[in-house]
Amino acid sequence: MRLRAPTSKTKHRAKLAPFDVLWAIAAPFLALALRDFSIIEESDAFGDFGPAYQYAFTTMFFAFLSFLVFRISDGMSHLFSVHDVLAVCGAVATTVASSSMTLFVLTRMEGVPRSTPLIYALVLGSGLILARTMARVFHTGTSRNEEPEEAASLMPRHVRRVLLIGADRFAAAAIKLVNCQRPRTTLVVAALDPRINFHGRAMSGVQIVGRVEELEEVVDEYQVHGVEIDEVWLSDDAAALPPLALERLGEQCQTRGLKLKSVAAALNLEPIVQEQPFVEEPAPVSEIELAEYFKLKRVMDVIASASLLIALAPLAMIAAGLVLYDVGAPILFWQQRIGRNGRKFLLYKFRTYHAPFDRRGNKLAPEDRLSRLGRAVRAGRLDEIPQLLNVLVGDMSLIGPRPLLPIDQPSDPRLRLSVRPGITGWAQLNGGTLVTPEQKDALDVWYIKHASLALDLKIAIRTVLFSVTGGEKMNHAAVEEAVRWLEIFHAEAGASTNALPGADLRPAAE
Fold first, then answer.
1. Contact between residue 333 and residue 369 where contact means Cβ atoms under 8 Å apart
2. pLDDT at 19 (0 to 100)
3. How far is it, in rounded angstroms, from Cα 55 to Cα 227?
4. d(CA 213, CA 51)
5. What's the CA gap between 454 and 219, in Å, rounded?
6. pLDDT band at 305 (very low <50, low <70, confident <90, very high)
7. pLDDT computed for residue 44 by the predictor
8. pLDDT tens-digit profile of 428-455?
9. Residues 6+ apart with CB under 8 A from 290
């Protein structure tokens, strides 16, 4: 899961790289020329704005707009990465789709062959990617030319020489990482791998010279050539070796005086050990079996969220425009929440508050942050429309317990985290912010036990009515019923707090 920058630190300025502008201008003419050069010549017969020029200027407009939306000019060409490739592909696809649809509606694309958009997409995309690739190659070549002088200033005895065991993506990335270090302190000299078909091949420029069992022979041979191995790094793949092989490896390294560590430990990327907020062995309680309805509920969520995204698109555009006018970019607010089984995910909303810090770094008071139009957007719950995307991808449900921040979780939240969190729920309709955390937890757990299609329809209808009328009201009867039911359940379970066997609250791997 990739986290975005905080709102106060997000610097989004309209920027177009000179090459991107020039290529966006040249690409449509080049595509038309590749398709049939006579198309451009024939357009002159229509005046100054024939079909070819209509196509060219339309694609230019949408290209510039897409470049700004996907921010392809924000990246550094010499650090071109896969994420930049995806951004370029998204911008190209949006440009082609938008321009083709616009021209087809306005002119039926008369005078322009139907294959032109495909040729244009290939020309525009390949040019943008090729330019960035060449910039990276040129920068890499320049760095290598400067490296000998730098290497001469660093004495050989200061370089840590490493023998890598195992070939996987993490190990390859580690090699690239240490090679980029300036001044260099580590050098991966060779690699070993148990897979014979890997021997003789190279991984990020480092050759795989033999099997793991040949560690001592490889170390001795490098020593003959004047290269002393200082450390042995174990990749993720090698960590899965049989216990006897790992034990033998440890003995060999100890005999040779070599430090043996994992790649994660060497790069200080080991998992952070955190204290669990729950007891390791909770008191035994009766298990709450989730109703079969929850299996059907996921199918309903996908269908309903996709339909609502289409139906609410005009309102979403209005809300986005209001946010952009009143609060500014970015228009989306994100916050990391805890979902089903303790898995962390990013919850999205339209922004209704200004950034917590101004441009000078001064913290703003909470009452100064709420925007003028934010109250109206929040009152109509338009700010929660982006959460339909969370529902579509499976992070949330339309109806369920609201996802809470880690600090707001109850003492034992495993029951409420046994299902997907919802955009709206029973607790929101019967008190919202007016109930205590204990009462909210009771309402959420009560919903999980009594969830049904009829109850969800009731919640959905009341949510729509609530959005129209506005204002939170506490339903004392519903709260008392939920609290009393939870107390009875705890009593029957023989524990002061509830637990759901098999529900692991530890955050899932991101």
1. no
2. 93
3. 63
4. 70
5. 71
6. very high
7. 59
8. 888 877 888 888 888 988 999 888 999 9
9. 418, 419, 448
pLDDT confidence of 494, banded at 50, 70, 90? low
Most distant CA atoms of the chain, gap in Å: 89
Give the whole-angstrom CA distance, residue 159 versus residue 151. Answer: 10
DSSP H or E stretch at residue 349:
strand 344-350
Q: Is the dihedral of CA 181, 186, 187, 190 positive or negative?
A: negative
More confident of the two residues 86 and 278:
86
Confidence of residue 43 (pLDDT cuts 50, 70, 90): low
- Give percent helix, percent strand, percent coil of the chain, each to the nearest 5: 55, 10, 35
Q: Record the tokens describing residue 316, joined without a space.
A: 């979403």
Question: Higher pLDDT residue, 206 or 224?
Answer: 206
Helix, strand, or coil (residue 468) = helix
The owner of tokens 């078909």 is: 197
Rounded to the nearest angstrom, the gap between the alpha carbon of residue 389 and the centroid of all alpha carbons in its chain is 13
User: Two tokens at 236?
Assistant: 């993720």
Task: Identify the structural domains of the chain with CATH numbers, from first to last.
Answer: 14-148 (no CATH), 154-266 (3.40.50.720), 293-493 (no CATH)
Lowest mean pLDDT among 102-106, 206-210, 367-371: 367-371
Angle at 99 between CA 98 and CA 102, to 5 degrees: 85
Residue with tokens 């002159």: 44
HSE toward the beta carbon, residue 421, CA cutoff 13 A = 26
How confident is residue 404, by pLDDT bands cut at 50, 70 and 90?
confident
Q: How far apart are CA 478 and CA 406, in angstroms?
A: 26
Give alpha helix (H) positions in 37-156: 38-43, 51-70, 82-107, 116-153
